[in-house]
Design brief:
This protein is mainly α and 77 residues long. It is built from one helix and no strands.
Length: 77
């Protein structure tokens, strides 16, 4: 059994800054964690409107870390 503690993403702070779907989840480029803003990545419960599980949040967190690392390397940091 999975107990859901909520199905509304906590993304209000990003309204008007990052693209969101009609439910409030942040939009990312398909297959990545990149948002429309260069160097800004989204993962976990704020961008996963389908699975919404801790294990997928951890997985996309790892993806975001790798995406951020590669972004910084490409920027010469």
């Amino acid at each position: 059994m999975f107990l859901a503690v909520g199905h509304v993403p906590n993304t209000e702070i990003f309204k008007g800054q990052l693209d969101q779907d009609v439910k409030g989840y942040l939009r990312v480029e398909p297959g990545t964690t990149r948002t429309k803003i260069k160097g800004v990545f989204a993962c976990g419960d704020v961008q996963d409107s389908y699975y919404r599980q801790a294990v997928t949040a951890a997985g996309t967190g790892c993806m975001a870390a790798i995406d951020a690392e590669r972004f910084l390397e490409s920027e010469g940091h």
